[in-house]
Amino acid sequence: MTVNEVAPNTPILPRINIFTMLRMGLFQLGLGMMSVLTLGLINRVMIDELNILPWITAGAIAMHQMVAPARVWFGQMSDSKPLLGFHRTSFVLLGAILFAVSAWLAVQVMWQLGLSVQANGWSLSTYLWSGLLALIFAGYGLALSASSTPFAALLVDISDDDNRSQLIGVVWSMLMVGIVVGAIIISRLIDRPEICGADLVNKVIPQNTELANIAQLKATINPVFVIVPAIVFGLACLATWGIENKYSRYKTRSSMVNREDQITLKTALKVLTANRQTGIFFSFLLVLTLSLFMQDAVMEPYGGQVFGMCISETTKLNAFFGSGTLFGIASTGFLILPRLGKQKTVKLGCSMAAACLIIILAAGFVTNPSLLKSGLLLFGLSSGILTAGATSLMLDLTAAETAGTFIGAWGLSQAIARGLATIFGGTVLNVGKLIFSSPVYAYGLVFVLQAIGLMLAIYLLGRVNIREFQDNTKRAIAAIISGDLD
User: Fold this and answer.
1) Are 182 and 37 in contact (CB under 8 A)?
2) Is residue 13 part of a domain?
3) Of the chain's two ends, which shows fewer C-beta atoms within 10 Å, N or C?
4) Is 201 exposed, middle or buried (0-12, 13-18, 19+ CB in 10 A)?
């Protein structure tokens, strides 16, 4: 039975309305706020204030994406093994508790790493603290996978073909609202003169070197990692409470819901790998996401080193990107997607994003913060357009019987790419600093490689065929039901 079919003699479930869509979006709003904490605030403080090498910073933070293979397992578990009576909700909330705690632990280890660098340089103890930070970020990533993958599958469960693009538009718009709101709240919480410029620096005698005052940083930033994660967990509860019971169509759509003992990870992966389109789309998502997010690891340090911005100012850069993305996603779901279709929409977004990266680079050459903010706003708009198109395409390439597994696979591709993007961004920046004496050229190397990758993503998108995917997946599921898929 496909996503659009309903078993006979089953009750007609209520359709979600705009209020429910907005409510579901509260979870994504929380994830947006968490991303400002991790990819924004922690990344900036480690590179600019604590003088942690960019590739070590990027490598540690990227670990939360490199555990992405767990997404497939968590997705399959939510398909086949209800937790506390729910296929999706319990996984979402338990994961939210764990990633909130992990974020707080990560920042505590970050301070120890910074103190070790100041006291011992790059000694064995410093590398051990770096390894521990990477391990905690891996735990953060597992918790995020356990929460976000079942949530994405829940979006499939509660929507129909005729309202799914609107649901995606609203929910992913709320992710950007979270980035904007998070950037504003966090920048105000840390907008203190004692953690900016000369006020943050202690001069060490007799070496006459300048070191950041970690105690001042810690006193300002630690409360942020208590307040924001607590808010995020509360939003997760508001977003999902009662939704699955009232709206989920999982039991009426899945031909295997009463055969859960047969939906093992092994059989789910057989469905996943029985289709060549799965590999093509996986590769497309990998290249697209890698190219789109390489700047995540360098944008706030870019603002600090090239434009001389304080921590609170570079945190606000997220608001410009998020505002553009918010408008891009919201308008795409209702205006662009119905007119252009999913694949043309993604191509448009990729082309625009590549052009915006050149604007962001040009802002650095003329040291114009206003041009940088404008470029980020337009880059966010382009990202919103291609994200809405790619996400709608992703949900079309999903089977109801193994929705969690397919969502996990697409999430795996994106998460691996996000992790690699963070690592590549930091590593390319390191290489650029070795090659060029001017920081703007080093950062520019990252932006140029991103633009090239976006063009490659357009090529791969041209090979994606939705009809072929759907036909092959139906045959694979039918073979599993009859026990013939070897």
Assistant:
1) yes
2) no
3) C
4) middle
Q: Does a structural domain hold residue 12? A: no
**For the chain, how many structural domains are there in total?**
1
CA distance 479 to 338: 34
For 27, 72, 336, 395, the CA distances from 331, given in Å and listed in that order, are: 20, 31, 7, 19
314/306 Cα distance (integer angstroms): 11
Q: Is the pTM of this model over 0.90?
A: no
Single-letter residue type at 54: P
Q: Residue 86: give its domain's CATH number.
A: 1.20.1250.20
Domain assignment of residue 40, given as a range: 18-482
Alpha helices in 310-341 (DSSP H): 311-331, 337-340
In order along its 486 residues, the chain shows pLDDT tens digits of 444 444 455 557 677 788 888 888 899 999 989 988 887 788 888 887 788 888 888 888 888 877 877 777 777 777 777 777 677 888 889 999 999 999 999 999 999 999 998 888 888 999 999 999 999 999 999 999 888 888 887 887 787 767 776 787 788 778 878 888 888 888 887 776 655 655 555 544 344 455 777 888 888 889 989 999 999 999 999 988 888 777 776 666 554 444 444 445 555 556 556 667 677 777 888 888 888 888 887 888 888 888 888 877 888 888 888 888 878 877 887 788 888 888 889 899 999 999 999 999 999 999 999 999 999 999 999 988 888 888 777 767 665 555 556 666 666 666 677 778 888 888 888 888 889 888 899 999 999 999 999 999 998 888 877 677 666 666 655 555 455 444
Query: Is residue 99 assigned to a domain?
Result: yes
Alpha carbon separation from 192 to 96, 221, 300 (Å, rounded): 30, 11, 18
Kindly state whether residue 458 falls inside one of the protein's structural domains: yes
Find out whether 406 and 398 touch, Cβ atoms under 8 Å. yes
What is the three-class DSSP state of 441? helix
